[in-house]
Amino acid sequence: MDRDPRSSLATRAIHGGAVPLVEGAPVVPPPVQSATFVGGGPDGDPDLLYTRYGNNPTQRALGGRIASLEGTEAGVGVGSGMAAIALAILSLVEAGDRIVSSRFLYGATRSFMDSELPRRGVSVDWVDPWEPGSWEDAVGPGTRLLYVESPVNPTLRIVDVREVVKVAREHGIPVVMDATFSSPANFRPGEHGVDLVIHSATKYLGGHSDLIAGVVAGSGERIQAITRLLHLYGPALDPHTAWLLDRGIRTLHVRMERHNRNALELARWFETAPEVTRVVHPGLPSHPDHRLAAELMDGFGGMLAVELKGGGPAADAFCRALALATVAPSLGGVETLVSLPRLTSHRGMSRADREVAGIPEGLVRISAGIEGLEDLKEDFARALGAAAEVADSA
Ligand SMILES: Cc1ncc(COP(=O)(O)O)c(C=O)c1O
Question: What domains can you pick out in the chain, each with its CATH number?
Fold first, then answer.
Protein backbone atom coordinates (compact mmCIF):
# COMPACT_ATOMS: atom_id res chain seq x y z
CA MET A 1 0.00 0.00 0.00
CA ASP A 2 2.74 2.47 0.99
CA ARG A 3 4.63 1.96 -2.28
CA ASP A 4 1.45 1.92 -4.32
CA PRO A 5 1.83 4.88 -6.69
CA ARG A 6 -1.95 5.34 -6.39
CA SER A 7 -1.71 6.25 -2.72
CA SER A 8 -1.59 10.00 -2.29
CA LEU A 9 1.59 11.94 -1.85
CA ALA A 10 0.55 12.85 1.68
CA THR A 11 0.28 9.14 2.54
CA ARG A 12 3.56 8.28 0.83
CA ALA A 13 5.34 11.09 2.68
CA ILE A 14 4.36 9.43 5.96
CA HIS A 15 4.32 5.70 5.14
CA GLY A 16 6.27 5.39 1.89
CA GLY A 17 9.05 2.83 1.98
CA ALA A 18 8.34 1.90 5.60
CA VAL A 19 8.59 -1.71 6.76
CA PRO A 20 5.42 -3.15 8.36
CA LEU A 21 5.42 -2.60 12.13
CA VAL A 22 5.25 -5.66 14.37
CA GLU A 23 3.77 -5.80 17.86
CA GLY A 24 5.91 -3.78 20.28
CA ALA A 25 8.00 -2.09 17.56
CA PRO A 26 8.61 1.64 17.92
CA VAL A 27 6.19 3.55 15.70
CA VAL A 28 9.08 5.84 14.83
CA PRO A 29 12.22 3.78 14.21
CA PRO A 30 15.09 5.41 16.13
CA PRO A 31 18.21 6.53 14.25
CA VAL A 32 20.77 3.77 14.03
CA GLN A 33 23.73 5.85 15.10
CA SER A 34 26.43 3.31 14.39
CA ALA A 35 29.31 3.55 11.94
CA THR A 36 29.62 -0.18 11.53
CA PHE A 37 27.73 -3.44 12.04
CA VAL A 38 28.65 -6.93 13.14
CA GLY A 39 29.80 -8.92 10.14
CA GLY A 40 32.70 -9.64 7.86
CA GLY A 41 33.75 -12.74 9.78
CA PRO A 42 34.39 -16.13 8.20
CA ASP A 43 30.78 -17.23 8.60
CA GLY A 44 29.04 -13.91 7.93
CA ASP A 45 27.16 -12.35 5.06
CA PRO A 46 29.61 -11.20 2.33
CA ASP A 47 27.62 -7.93 2.00
CA LEU A 48 29.11 -5.61 4.61
CA LEU A 49 27.05 -2.99 6.40
CA TYR A 50 29.00 0.24 6.89
CA THR A 51 27.53 3.73 7.16
CA ARG A 52 29.79 5.27 4.50
CA TYR A 53 28.33 2.71 2.05
CA GLY A 54 24.85 4.20 2.51
CA ASN A 55 23.42 0.88 3.76
CA ASN A 56 22.87 1.83 7.42
CA PRO A 57 19.19 0.99 8.20
CA THR A 58 18.32 4.69 8.77
CA GLN A 59 19.86 5.65 5.42
CA ARG A 60 18.03 2.76 3.73
CA ALA A 61 14.70 3.82 5.21
CA LEU A 62 15.25 7.33 3.86
CA GLY A 63 16.13 5.99 0.41
CA GLY A 64 12.90 3.98 0.36
CA ARG A 65 10.86 7.01 1.38
CA ILE A 66 12.44 9.13 -1.37
CA ALA A 67 11.77 6.46 -3.99
CA SER A 68 8.17 6.20 -2.86
CA LEU A 69 7.69 9.98 -3.03
CA GLU A 70 9.21 10.31 -6.49
CA GLY A 71 7.61 7.11 -7.82
CA THR A 72 11.00 5.60 -8.75
CA GLU A 73 12.53 2.19 -8.07
CA ALA A 74 15.21 3.47 -5.71
CA GLY A 75 16.53 6.50 -3.87
CA VAL A 76 19.62 7.46 -1.90
CA GLY A 77 20.47 10.20 0.57
CA VAL A 78 23.91 11.84 0.55
CA GLY A 79 25.75 14.54 2.49
CA SER A 80 24.49 17.63 0.59
CA GLY A 81 22.66 18.76 -2.52
CA MET A 82 26.01 19.38 -4.21
CA ALA A 83 27.15 15.84 -3.36
CA ALA A 84 23.95 14.55 -4.99
CA ILE A 85 24.61 16.60 -8.14
CA ALA A 86 28.29 15.67 -8.37
CA LEU A 87 27.73 11.95 -7.82
CA ALA A 88 24.75 11.77 -10.18
CA ILE A 89 26.73 13.37 -13.01
CA LEU A 90 29.97 11.49 -12.32
CA SER A 91 28.08 8.19 -12.30
CA LEU A 92 27.20 8.76 -15.97
CA VAL A 93 30.33 10.20 -17.59
CA GLU A 94 33.96 9.40 -18.24
CA ALA A 95 36.88 11.24 -19.86
CA GLY A 96 36.08 12.27 -23.41
CA ASP A 97 32.31 12.53 -22.82
CA ARG A 98 30.16 15.64 -23.24
CA ILE A 99 27.04 16.71 -21.44
CA VAL A 100 24.37 19.14 -22.60
CA SER A 101 23.06 21.42 -19.86
CA SER A 102 20.68 24.29 -19.41
CA ARG A 103 22.77 27.42 -18.82
CA PHE A 104 20.47 28.49 -15.96
CA LEU A 105 21.78 26.67 -12.90
CA TYR A 106 22.48 27.05 -9.20
CA GLY A 107 25.89 28.79 -8.95
CA ALA A 108 27.85 25.88 -7.48
CA THR A 109 26.41 23.48 -10.07
CA ARG A 110 27.57 25.87 -12.77
CA SER A 111 31.05 26.06 -11.18
CA PHE A 112 31.20 22.25 -10.92
CA MET A 113 30.49 22.00 -14.64
CA ASP A 114 32.80 24.88 -15.54
CA SER A 115 35.80 23.85 -13.48
CA GLU A 116 35.54 20.30 -12.14
CA LEU A 117 34.14 18.39 -15.11
CA PRO A 118 36.84 19.67 -17.52
CA ARG A 119 39.48 18.43 -15.05
CA ARG A 120 38.01 14.98 -15.59
CA GLY A 121 38.02 15.37 -19.38
CA VAL A 122 34.26 16.03 -19.59
CA SER A 123 33.01 19.11 -21.46
CA VAL A 124 29.67 20.87 -21.34
CA ASP A 125 27.54 22.30 -24.16
CA TRP A 126 25.21 25.01 -22.86
CA VAL A 127 21.67 25.59 -24.08
CA ASP A 128 18.96 28.16 -23.53
CA PRO A 129 16.11 25.80 -22.58
CA TRP A 130 13.42 28.16 -23.90
CA GLU A 131 14.90 28.43 -27.37
CA PRO A 132 13.03 26.02 -29.63
CA GLY A 133 15.20 23.11 -30.83
CA SER A 134 18.15 24.07 -28.59
CA TRP A 135 18.48 20.66 -26.91
CA GLU A 136 18.32 18.76 -30.17
CA ASP A 137 20.84 21.10 -31.82
CA ALA A 138 23.33 20.72 -28.95
CA VAL A 139 23.35 16.90 -28.77
CA GLY A 140 26.34 15.32 -30.52
CA PRO A 141 27.88 11.84 -30.78
CA GLY A 142 29.75 12.18 -27.46
CA THR A 143 26.78 13.49 -25.44
CA ARG A 144 26.10 11.24 -22.44
CA LEU A 145 23.35 13.13 -20.58
CA LEU A 146 21.06 16.14 -20.58
CA TYR A 147 21.01 18.23 -17.41
CA VAL A 148 18.27 20.60 -16.34
CA GLU A 149 17.27 22.57 -13.25
CA SER A 150 13.71 23.85 -12.85
CA PRO A 151 12.24 26.09 -11.49
CA VAL A 152 15.26 28.32 -12.07
CA ASN A 153 16.69 30.51 -9.31
CA PRO A 154 15.66 33.38 -8.92
CA THR A 155 13.59 34.03 -12.07
CA LEU A 156 11.48 30.94 -11.33
CA ARG A 157 11.34 30.12 -15.04
CA ILE A 158 9.98 26.61 -15.67
CA VAL A 159 11.58 24.26 -18.20
CA ASP A 160 9.22 21.96 -20.12
CA VAL A 161 11.10 18.82 -19.17
CA ARG A 162 8.86 16.70 -21.41
CA GLU A 163 10.66 18.21 -24.42
CA VAL A 164 14.05 17.48 -22.88
CA VAL A 165 13.02 13.87 -22.23
CA LYS A 166 11.80 13.53 -25.83
CA VAL A 167 15.19 14.57 -27.22
CA ALA A 168 17.00 12.32 -24.74
CA ARG A 169 14.90 9.30 -25.71
CA GLU A 170 15.61 9.85 -29.40
CA HIS A 171 19.33 9.69 -28.63
CA GLY A 172 19.13 6.95 -25.98
CA ILE A 173 20.67 9.11 -23.22
CA PRO A 174 19.40 9.93 -19.71
CA VAL A 175 18.01 13.20 -18.32
CA VAL A 176 19.20 14.40 -14.91
CA MET A 177 17.10 17.08 -13.22
CA ASP A 178 17.56 19.22 -10.10
CA ALA A 179 13.98 19.79 -8.91
CA THR A 180 14.88 21.36 -5.55
CA PHE A 181 12.71 24.45 -5.98
CA SER A 182 9.46 22.57 -6.61
CA SER A 183 9.88 19.69 -4.11
CA PRO A 184 8.14 16.37 -4.88
CA ALA A 185 4.89 17.81 -3.50
CA ASN A 186 4.60 20.13 -6.51
CA PHE A 187 6.39 18.21 -9.24
CA ARG A 188 7.77 14.71 -9.68
CA PRO A 189 10.07 14.63 -12.72
CA GLY A 190 10.19 10.81 -12.80
CA GLU A 191 6.51 10.82 -13.84
CA HIS A 192 7.63 12.60 -17.02
CA GLY A 193 10.49 10.26 -17.81
CA VAL A 194 13.41 12.00 -16.07
CA ASP A 195 15.98 9.32 -15.24
CA LEU A 196 17.69 10.83 -12.18
CA VAL A 197 15.87 13.30 -9.93
CA ILE A 198 17.99 15.39 -7.56
CA HIS A 199 17.02 17.54 -4.59
CA SER A 200 19.00 19.64 -2.21
CA ALA A 201 17.13 18.13 0.75
CA THR A 202 18.53 21.02 2.78
CA LYS A 203 15.54 22.97 1.40
CA TYR A 204 11.90 21.79 1.30
CA LEU A 205 12.44 18.08 2.05
CA GLY A 206 14.16 18.82 5.37
CA GLY A 207 12.02 21.90 5.67
CA HIS A 208 13.41 23.40 8.87
CA SER A 209 16.76 24.95 7.82
CA ASP A 210 18.52 22.68 10.31
CA LEU A 211 20.31 20.13 8.15
CA ILE A 212 22.41 19.74 5.01
CA ALA A 213 21.55 16.80 2.76
CA GLY A 214 20.90 15.76 -0.82
CA VAL A 215 18.89 12.98 -2.41
CA VAL A 216 18.79 11.24 -5.78
CA ALA A 217 15.93 9.09 -7.08
CA GLY A 218 15.93 6.81 -10.13
CA SER A 219 16.11 3.21 -11.31
CA GLY A 220 17.75 0.62 -9.05
CA GLU A 221 20.67 0.32 -11.47
CA ARG A 222 21.33 4.06 -11.67
CA ILE A 223 21.12 4.51 -7.90
CA GLN A 224 23.50 1.57 -7.45
CA ALA A 225 26.02 3.33 -9.72
CA ILE A 226 25.73 6.42 -7.50
CA THR A 227 26.10 4.32 -4.35
CA ARG A 228 29.33 2.89 -5.79
CA LEU A 229 30.71 6.44 -6.01
CA LEU A 230 29.45 7.13 -2.49
CA HIS A 231 31.85 4.34 -1.35
CA LEU A 232 34.75 5.99 -3.16
CA TYR A 233 34.22 9.74 -2.63
CA GLY A 234 32.65 9.32 0.81
CA PRO A 235 29.94 12.03 1.21
CA ALA A 236 27.69 9.75 3.28
CA LEU A 237 24.66 11.16 5.04
CA ASP A 238 25.12 10.89 8.80
CA PRO A 239 22.35 8.65 10.28
CA HIS A 240 21.14 11.35 12.65
CA THR A 241 20.75 13.78 9.73
CA ALA A 242 19.04 11.06 7.68
CA TRP A 243 16.61 10.55 10.56
CA LEU A 244 15.92 14.29 10.88
CA LEU A 245 15.38 14.51 7.14
CA ASP A 246 12.99 11.58 7.25
CA ARG A 247 11.06 13.36 10.00
CA GLY A 248 10.90 16.54 7.95
CA ILE A 249 9.59 14.68 4.91
CA ARG A 250 6.58 13.38 6.84
CA THR A 251 5.12 16.91 6.93
CA LEU A 252 6.21 17.88 3.41
CA HIS A 253 2.70 17.84 2.03
CA VAL A 254 1.12 20.17 4.58
CA ARG A 255 4.13 22.48 4.66
CA MET A 256 4.10 22.79 0.88
CA GLU A 257 0.38 23.59 0.82
CA ARG A 258 1.09 26.51 3.13
CA HIS A 259 4.31 27.57 1.33
CA ASN A 260 2.39 27.54 -1.97
CA ARG A 261 -0.49 29.56 -0.54
CA ASN A 262 1.64 32.13 1.28
CA ALA A 263 3.87 32.71 -1.76
CA LEU A 264 0.94 33.16 -4.14
CA GLU A 265 -0.90 35.48 -1.75
CA LEU A 266 2.25 37.53 -1.14
CA ALA A 267 2.94 37.73 -4.89
CA ARG A 268 -0.58 39.06 -5.51
CA TRP A 269 -0.20 41.52 -2.64
CA PHE A 270 3.20 42.81 -3.86
CA GLU A 271 1.64 43.33 -7.30
CA THR A 272 -0.54 46.05 -5.78
CA ALA A 273 2.41 47.87 -4.14
CA PRO A 274 3.55 51.07 -5.91
CA GLU A 275 7.14 50.55 -4.67
CA VAL A 276 7.40 47.33 -6.72
CA THR A 277 8.05 47.37 -10.47
CA ARG A 278 7.85 43.60 -11.07
CA VAL A 279 6.73 40.52 -9.17
CA VAL A 280 8.10 37.13 -10.18
CA HIS A 281 6.03 34.06 -9.30
CA PRO A 282 4.88 31.23 -11.60
CA GLY A 283 1.35 31.49 -10.18
CA LEU A 284 0.88 35.00 -11.61
CA PRO A 285 -0.52 35.28 -15.14
CA SER A 286 2.29 37.81 -15.83
CA HIS A 287 4.96 35.09 -15.40
CA PRO A 288 6.30 33.87 -18.78
CA ASP A 289 5.77 30.21 -17.82
CA HIS A 290 2.48 30.57 -15.95
CA ARG A 291 0.53 28.33 -18.31
CA LEU A 292 3.23 25.66 -18.38
CA ALA A 293 3.48 25.72 -14.57
CA ALA A 294 -0.31 25.38 -14.28
CA GLU A 295 -0.23 22.40 -16.65
CA LEU A 296 2.78 20.58 -15.16
CA MET A 297 2.82 21.35 -11.46
CA ASP A 298 0.52 20.58 -8.53
CA GLY A 299 1.46 23.89 -6.90
CA PHE A 300 3.37 27.01 -7.93
CA GLY A 301 5.91 26.77 -5.11
CA GLY A 302 6.97 28.83 -2.14
CA MET A 303 9.44 31.13 -3.90
CA LEU A 304 8.86 34.61 -5.27
CA ALA A 305 10.94 37.65 -6.16
CA VAL A 306 10.15 41.35 -6.29
CA GLU A 307 11.96 44.11 -8.13
CA LEU A 308 11.99 47.41 -6.26
CA LYS A 309 11.95 50.94 -7.59
CA GLY A 310 15.23 52.48 -6.50
CA GLY A 311 17.41 49.46 -7.42
CA GLY A 312 20.14 48.13 -5.11
CA PRO A 313 19.90 50.85 -2.41
CA ALA A 314 16.13 50.32 -2.12
CA ALA A 315 16.63 46.55 -1.88
CA ASP A 316 19.22 47.10 0.87
CA ALA A 317 16.84 49.37 2.81
CA PHE A 318 14.06 46.78 2.37
CA CYS A 319 16.24 44.10 3.97
CA ARG A 320 17.41 46.33 6.83
CA ALA A 321 13.80 47.14 7.79
CA LEU A 322 12.63 43.52 8.08
CA ALA A 323 11.77 42.38 11.60
CA LEU A 324 10.01 39.03 11.03
CA ALA A 325 11.50 37.71 7.79
CA THR A 326 15.19 36.80 8.11
CA VAL A 327 17.85 37.92 5.64
CA ALA A 328 19.78 34.75 4.82
CA PRO A 329 20.67 32.60 1.82
CA SER A 330 18.96 29.23 1.29
CA LEU A 331 15.25 28.50 1.09
CA GLY A 332 12.52 26.01 1.82
CA GLY A 333 12.38 26.28 5.61
CA VAL A 334 9.31 27.00 7.72
CA GLU A 335 10.62 30.53 8.35
CA THR A 336 10.52 33.23 5.66
CA LEU A 337 13.98 33.96 4.27
CA VAL A 338 14.92 36.95 2.13
CA SER A 339 18.04 37.27 0.02
CA LEU A 340 19.52 39.65 -2.52
CA PRO A 341 20.71 37.58 -5.51
CA ARG A 342 23.27 40.25 -6.45
CA LEU A 343 25.01 39.70 -3.08
CA THR A 344 24.40 35.97 -2.68
CA SER A 345 23.53 33.38 -5.34
CA HIS A 346 24.65 35.49 -8.34
CA ARG A 347 27.45 37.59 -6.88
CA GLY A 348 29.96 35.76 -9.12
CA MET A 349 28.33 37.27 -12.24
CA SER A 350 28.96 40.76 -13.59
CA ARG A 351 26.18 43.30 -13.19
CA ALA A 352 25.67 43.33 -16.98
CA ASP A 353 25.38 39.52 -17.12
CA ARG A 354 22.91 39.60 -14.24
CA GLU A 355 20.75 42.14 -16.10
CA VAL A 356 20.70 39.83 -19.14
CA ALA A 357 19.73 36.88 -16.91
CA GLY A 358 16.78 38.86 -15.50
CA ILE A 359 18.44 39.70 -12.18
CA PRO A 360 18.51 43.49 -11.81
CA GLU A 361 20.13 45.22 -8.82
CA GLY A 362 16.79 45.85 -7.11
CA LEU A 363 15.66 42.21 -7.13
CA VAL A 364 14.77 40.69 -3.76
CA ARG A 365 14.23 36.93 -3.51
CA ILE A 366 11.75 35.65 -0.93
CA SER A 367 11.37 32.09 0.32
CA ALA A 368 7.87 32.32 1.78
CA GLY A 369 7.69 30.47 5.08
CA ILE A 370 4.58 29.13 6.72
CA GLU A 371 4.02 31.98 9.21
CA GLY A 372 0.76 33.90 9.42
CA LEU A 373 0.20 35.74 6.17
CA GLU A 374 -0.96 38.97 7.79
CA ASP A 375 2.19 39.10 9.95
CA LEU A 376 4.34 38.69 6.86
CA LYS A 377 2.42 41.41 5.02
CA GLU A 378 2.89 43.77 7.95
CA ASP A 379 6.64 43.12 7.95
CA PHE A 380 6.92 43.54 4.18
CA ALA A 381 4.79 46.72 4.25
CA ARG A 382 7.29 48.29 6.68
CA ALA A 383 10.18 47.16 4.48
CA LEU A 384 8.51 48.61 1.37
CA GLY A 385 8.12 51.91 3.23
CA ALA A 386 11.86 51.96 3.95
CA ALA A 387 12.60 51.10 0.31
CA ALA A 388 10.33 53.92 -0.90
CA GLU A 389 12.16 56.50 1.27
CA VAL A 390 15.44 55.55 -0.40
CA ALA A 391 13.91 55.48 -3.89
CA ASP A 392 12.27 58.90 -3.40
CA SER A 393 15.45 60.55 -2.09
CA ALA A 394 17.60 59.22 -4.98
C1 LIG B 1 18.69 24.52 -6.87
C2 LIG B 1 19.76 24.11 -5.92
N3 LIG B 1 20.41 22.96 -6.13
C4 LIG B 1 21.41 22.54 -5.31
C5 LIG B 1 21.79 23.30 -4.23
C6 LIG B 1 22.92 22.81 -3.34
O7 LIG B 1 22.39 22.29 -2.17
P8 LIG B 1 23.25 22.07 -0.83
O9 LIG B 1 23.51 23.42 -0.26
O10 LIG B 1 22.37 21.19 0.00
O11 LIG B 1 24.52 21.39 -1.24
C12 LIG B 1 21.13 24.49 -3.95
C13 LIG B 1 21.51 25.31 -2.78
O14 LIG B 1 21.06 26.42 -2.59
C15 LIG B 1 20.09 24.92 -4.83
O16 LIG B 1 19.42 26.08 -4.62
Answer: 9-249 (3.40.640.10), 252-393 (3.90.1150.10)
